[in-house]
## 1
Amino acid sequence: MSVDEDSRWLEWVKKQFETIAGDDKEIDIDEFKTALKVKESFFAERFFALFDSDGSGSISLDELLKALNLLIHGDETDKLRFLFQVYDVDGVKCCVCFVPTGSGSIDPDELRTVLKSCLQESAISLPEEKLDDLTLVLFESADKDSSGSITFEELKAELENFPEVMENLTISAANWLKPPDQEQKKSQTPRYLTRAYWQNNSRKLLFLCGYVLLNLMLFVAAMLYHRKGGGWFMLAKGCGQCLNFNCTFVMVLMLRRCLTWLRATWVVRILPLDQNILLHQIVGYAILFFTLVHTAAHVINFAQKSQSGGFSLWEYLLTTRPGIGWVKGTASLTGVILQLLICLMVFCSSTFVRRSGHFEVFYWTHLSYIWVWILLIIHCANFWKWFVVPGFVFLLEKIVGIAVSRIGGLYIVEVNLLPSKVTHLVIRRPQFFQFKPGDYIYINIPVIAKYEWHPFTISSAPEQPDTMWLHVRSMGQWTNRLYEYFRQPESQAVCPKRLATSLRKRHQEKRQQVSAKSGENHRFCNIKCYVDGPYGTPTRQIFASEHAVLIGAGIGITPFASILQSIMYRMRKHTYPNCSSTGCENVKDSDMRLRKVDFIWINRDQKSFEWFVSLLTKLEMEQADGEPEGQFLEMHMYMTSALSKNDMKAIGLQMALDLLAKKEEKDSITGLRTRTQPGRPKWEKVFQKLSEENKGKVHVFYCGAPALAKVIKAQCEHFGFNFYKENF
């Protein structure tokens, strides 16, 4: 650190100390635990004992500064010695003077105690036997002289085998002790002005430029046509003409069947079809803007007219007496109602409404579009001319959707309740129902809600015959009702027992394909449902890519589960051309250009991996053994609740997990060959590695939280990768 940085750090620590310490200007053990935000008291007590150099039972500012100076400014040996003192449970040493008062070595029981606390800090649950295995594998590796204990020199030698740990050895939970990074405050070029952003978003930006230009032309043309009516009247008419266009165009962007068909044509290379939801939202906000300006201009115009006599302002706005409008003078009344409906629809479409467990509010208010179109036809004499063709196509799509959803009865034949309130539905698949990997459907389950339709990605492969899968995360009212319905005892649910026996026999051979628990979380049933779709998504382009990177966050794995299964069938067909097993006969790999697939799955907790662990195990078994860089499919698992490898509270655990994974050739957390990495991915390093593989043009497909999408998209723009995000 420079002198300025050191001075700033010192001031920051003093400020933080004052906020944590009590009136006595000392930090006691409870205040220390609160400040470090540790889950397990073991590490808080060990750190506190080492920070409290005089053994007074509290930490003064001077003691804190000395200890932090060692951890932040100290060299590698100082930090390692502090780590050793933490692990030497039967001894308490002063972290400043390093005077030993304990055994000076770590025995197996001490190491086991530390690793158990590491597991609790990282929210990892393992059997006691597995904890013993982790303890022994790390102890045997570190105890070079087989003396039955680990000395400081032996621990240091063992850590040298893990260079990534030594890069930034720190206590990550003590971020409150670090001053804000001033580099983040430096002015940077906005990403929207960078060359990479314009190159990676060229289709969308050109389309938006054309959209803005068209609106501008319509606005100017309408104003000039009505120039005799005065300035406010011209403004109202200009916005009105833009509303004629936008209120029909917003519908065109939601013609899902037409867009799905266009995705299979050359049009997808010109128009941003994969951005239809974003464009729909932009047009929606444009409608709100034009509506507000249109209404305000008319109100001002009416106010001016009311001053010259005839009718009052309220008569202009709320009655039919002035005779404005082509249907019995109802233009003003319909305009007021339209203004209220459009404001309500836009408000209930906002993210905080849709993502806060109130999807039904968005769903039902959005159905007001029917009344909006009816009122627009009454309100404006020319709107029907804009509406007739798109409206006919929209109506045709709805009729086809209703017809398809009612043809060939669909039934939920199997249900599995998975961790984190995920409901796995197995639906009997009609022969005529064809879809592609990553497609989604709208499903209606009358026993849950008679009139509600909700979109979910199909998580099974098209090559899988007879059934298709949906994985539904409980995040709103409807999804919670679905989970609770199947969680109740079978006798209370509407699952006819007379069919249970035959269904069990029919699906007995398929039970291995379903990643679900048995017993109370697994049942067979025969529940009627209706499906509308399938509809295409950006992932339809995946097999036309050369190097595909699939990134799923949490339940965002569902479209990639379908894709990975399809890849498995195609790999099987490629390896065994005469394969006649189930699913092989349905494989069509004429459009397969893939040379490499990287699959990245990020989960918060350990249990979430259980959703698709059986599928991932099969994928690993399908691949021929070889070096990772030679594999067609590479998997990367991340668990965000687990502390990173360079955190002092997790170093021993992560070293032990690495050693045991090499010994047993499988990960202790998931059971896969792929090692689960702790913490969040370091995206810059991940994308740098991908760019160096030279497997062709990289296409990144993402499904998950919007906040992470922004981070990944920014990295894609930096490295020149194509980015696709699941939207429906």
## 2
Amino acid sequence: VRFTKPQRSLGRISLLLLNLEEYYFDQDRANHILHKGSHHERKIRGSLKICSKSAIFEPDVISQPIIKIPLRDCIKTGKHGENGANRHFTKEKSGSISLIFSQVYFIKEHNVVAPYKIERGKMEYVFELDVPGKVEDVVETLLQLHRASCLDNLGDQTAMVTAILQSRLARTSFDKNRFQNISEKLHMECKAEMVTPLVTNPGHRGHLSNYQYLLHLNTVADRSCNDLSQYPGFPWIIHDYSRTFRDLSKPVGALNKKRLEGLLTGYQEMPEPKFMYGSHYSSPGYVLFYLVRIAPEYMLCLQNGRFDNADRMFNSITETWKNCLDGATDFKELIPEFYGDDVSFLVNSLKLDLGKRQGRQMVDDVEVPPWASSPEDFLQKSKDALESNYVSEHLQEWIDLIFGYKQKGSCAVGAHNVFHPLTCEGGVDLNNIQDPDEKVAMLTQILEFGKTLAWNNITKLQLHEHYKIHKEAVTGITVSRNGSSVFTTSQDSTLKMFSKESKMLQSSISFSNMALSSCLLLPGDATVVTSSWDNNVYFYSVAFGRHQDTLMGHDDAVSKIYWHDNRLYSASWDSTVKVWSGVPAEMPGTKRHHFDLLAELEHDVSVDTISLNPASTLLVSGTKEGTVNIWDLTTATLMHQIPCHSGIVCDTAFSPDSRHVLSTGADGCLNVTDVQTGMLISSMMSDEPQRCFVWDGNSVSSGSQSGELLTWDLLGAKISERTQGHTGAVTCIWMNEQCSSIITGGEDRQIIFWKLQY
């Protein structure tokens, strides 16, 4: 099935200019003849549009107003020269139409949206059609519609207009010249109605621009400019802003092949329900990102009384497109304003103080691409691109992604178009949630958190086994994939390997006389990596039972390490996080690793903890002064710096969908921050520091200073369970991917194995 749209546009005319229950019939190219037959005669080029209750002339020159003549105010309608006094001017077949009327409206003069101007009194307008042979047909239609408009009863008017309309539709057929391929055949032709806000227009998809077609689809998809959470979505059209077209068959997230590969890796490793993009192509934040210059109060409301960081504002169209193409979490499309006539959303006409960028320049008007001479020129060229033949031929591919069959299921997977389930209609059936509190909680989750992951929810923890294996506080825990071997680090400077099956200590290794701070296993479980307060990172071969390598990478204690896809991420008290490329040895334990420094993320103070999102495109760091920093690893740039704790940030983690960051601190707070906006959207308090935590996307289990494990209900913003475990602070915690097993380490030198009860 193809919905075919003609190439001619309605131009400045919107169907909203029509009266309620008024239909658009047809249009013809024409000249408006002023002072016909006199020495002052002149012609205004444009289009004459016939509607069920009016005749509308749209001049090509936008400084000229649109003319709307109500048919019920017409006194005489006919060929020019047949209306009395003008008869002597016509000596041959006339190609002109004469309308004598008592009232006319002037609309959008100089293309400015403003109240209509009305002129009253008897007057005559003459319109010269490009095709003289159509004059009789147009005049006959106008006379029929005039008779209908003069009927007293509205029902009679509607019935007569409907009869006229059906008669016209019966005489028209699909233009086969609009086929895209000569082998195409017409299988079916049927009547249709185009529905737009306040207007319904019958026809065969007649004289409809791509712009109005997209507005129509957004409308029937329940998207409205009155609802920021369901604002109409429009596509990016120009690919690299040097005037080449974007591939409309792919969602924004799939346009960059390298970024897509990383997203697909995270998708394949993710538990059900899987998704590729944790953020949506449209959201209130994205809409107001574009519209902040004309809707500042809405942005202040959404942002808790502040504007966003100046460098993250809508400063440049080219920069915004680049971020959508390369950024780790930005997959947004455009809004209708990019293809309209009003440039005010690009211009700081309100003289808002939107802050200073890093280069100290004030945020003011949006910078347009080099090929546009002004905001007006940018919109005009964008409209030209939207209405181009290329877009007309390929727009249905984008529509399939956003409105059609590629939204869900295997087709969405094949098109790399899998968004989070809660962003899709039917993702959650609220009608089946009977408990009103639960329903409110789910609505809050959809609006604020965006996701409750379908992992098991942590509800009750039962102490299973405990072993004292260190001489000082335990600082790190990692477990082999089969769960049989548990590796721990401690402030006693040792790495220990404990057998879960034999319940015995298998080995103890010391690299220096200083504390070890964290540990991890490389893929394959053949090498353990540990970080140390002596500024180094150590590699230990499990297979060969010996120290394999040392990375001397920092100027102060290394506090936390992560590994993903042959990259090592190390945080240090020297105020840096460093990213290293690590080429693993061909034979574990026999060759040294080779490391290159890829990036250095600089902080103002010492970094105590870091965490990566599942795709390793984002990194969050926590400092000793209570600041949470969110970094885009694809560009090694700082996205947000959020001072949300008083005192040390003890632990951080991304939600499984990468939309939110959870952080705990010495201040006892458990905070949830939105990754895209940097907004603190939830903060919960406990009466003591929370040193570490794990979470399943909904519930959080944190280790407290007193040795208790607290289970938090994020939606209910409360502590749901308290379980006593260690004598002294819980210092580290590990949970398997299935969320079925938890191990904790404490200041009491013990490791405790927990069972989860559901």
## 3
Amino acid sequence: MLRALCELLEITRHLLLCVLENLCSSVEFSINMPSFLLLGAICIFLFSRVPPCLPLQKVHVSKETIGKISAASKMMWCSAAMDILFLLDGSHSVGKGSFERSKHFAITVCDALDISPEKVRVGAFQFGSMPHLEFPLDSFSTRQEVKAQIKRMVFNGGRTETGLALRHLLRRGFPGGRNGSVPQSLVIVTDGKSQGQVALLAKQLKEKGIIVFAVGIRFPRWAELRTLASEPQEQHVLLAEQVEDATNGLLSTLTSSALCSPAAPDCRAQAHPCAHRTLETIRELAGTAPCWRGAPRADAVLATRCPFYSWKRVLLSHPATCYRTTCPGACDSHPCQNGGTCIPEGLDRYHCLCPLAFGGEANCGSALRQVAERGFGSAARPGQARPQRVVVLLTESPSQDEVAGPASRVRAHDLLLLALGSEAVRAELEEITGSPRHVMVYAEPQDLFSKVPELQEKLCVRPRSGCQAQSVDLIFLLDASASVGPENFAQMQSFVRSCALQFDVNPDVTQVGLVVYGGWAQTAFGLDAHLTRAAVLRAMSQAPYLGGVGSAGMALLHIYDKVMTVQRGARPGVLKVVVMVTGGRGAEDAAAPAQKLRSSGISVLVVGVGPVLRDALRRLAGPQHALIHVAAYSDLQYHQDALIEWICREAKRPVNLCMPSPCMHEGICVLRRGSYLCKCRDGWEGPHCENRVLRGDAPKARGSRQDPAGGLHTPGSQHLQWPGHPGS
């Protein structure tokens, strides 16, 4: 665990350096380093618990229980008379790094042994191509001497001749031991990849009464470890890569034999489900290829297709049972909050390892409040405006306390919250930041580097106001149902007014409309109702609150049929956008209507507020980028930039003049060299088939001819171009 923690901290350090070195000059960056950069925004990184590397043995218990297992490994003591011999695999298949971890495991076990000539004696062998005695059991009489000698062991290499080492012990016994007058324990630390037979030799050792522990290292071959180990195998097969867990397992087994004892009488050894993992090379069918084989007749060759295979390495998992000792302790009440780690100090004391921004708090109780109130200090300098302030949260574990309220107060301090964490905490990070757009998720610790460009972009790039004179037909759809309430509806109105301020409202650039829905859908004002921004803002303030049970699907169909149409002011060849703001129920029936709008060339963005039906909203939003989740109505103001940026990004997409169709009364829209032509059905004429033809006068008045496709070309049919289209 210590090695994994160090590796991850090193990755994180490089991540910060990458961000600092490449951050654009418009950001001011504040971090607790010997010297720090003054750029355009201030960022504080909160480090919560870091994820460990993939374990080759996983005990299926809670993190609290894993902590208890680790603590109990330091609280057991072995003082009964016994001989313990470590047999360490020093072959090339193990490698020098894993050999060093084997030594670390042996040293950790020695910390729990009362080493003396009368009580516990310890010796060590190393084996590769040949067994080599490092020191006999009667060489050293103190724990410090034994540990020092284990540290001085040098990796030899060679083949994995486990059988030779076992045969040597069968012939000569434990060197320096007490000839079986006290219990004997053999601790074999190996990868289980012996180049000879070991089953019979291990059986003979166990028949002599020797307790055999098989401890895996690197990617062990678990089947061989089980062959080596004493019965019951689940109590004698361990993994040295997880030192504290393996030490606990070994001492727990010796405790059951009354050779060791826990520090407290209420400590108990229990069985837990676990999994053993290892890398295996497997063969799989890759395909077939032409080949030739001999036919039954000697002078014939048979052409056929023969299979060919590929080999790959896969990580396989095998269910198992692990026996571990746990003791009740001071951390049982979970005193450390906000991702703080509780470290037991004996049975009745503890201390908390808190993330960096807690200011020395004993139990880590207020990370977000601390960073909002103390993290930035006096950032504004005399004569200068306050720079943008950013908080970047890095975590992989869920918070142990409520986060929505503190996160909302942080955003109320005009702080931008960004979060980087594992997939398991995505939902909580979205609640903390107030938006999925402010959350970055990684799968493994090494993936942190791949998130550097995304983090830099979020830190450096600020959306520009409006879309720089690009034409947009924009409809805001507000949830005015009883589940929202009049006060929250008023905050929705304020939000869309603020968004409308970012656009140049006039008939040639941006047209804005507003629809509300509750028990029914109602057009507050259409696209062509108000020609100036001031008029749009006044009309938004007068939008009615409806109440009743809302239906988002009904409201979207209302927009499709009666709002986003040519006769109601929609302009052909112009981007069409619907921004739906909802905080209540009623989204279950909206997925199909939303898709109908998108299929007609109308972009749909969903802004969901508060405890909404997330699955239904995600289906409604369609693509992942078409959903903005906001924690509370008061936080809508912090998502205006994200909404404007989304609309402007949509405005860059090519526009089809015939989607949605500008032709009325089932007329057919035909694209013609940068414009379009409406083919009208019988009985209609005009540029958009908007005029009815009087009976008896149709042929004379229209001077039209029948189209082979069933429509009519009329003198009124024409190529049309509109403002905002490239051809205009």
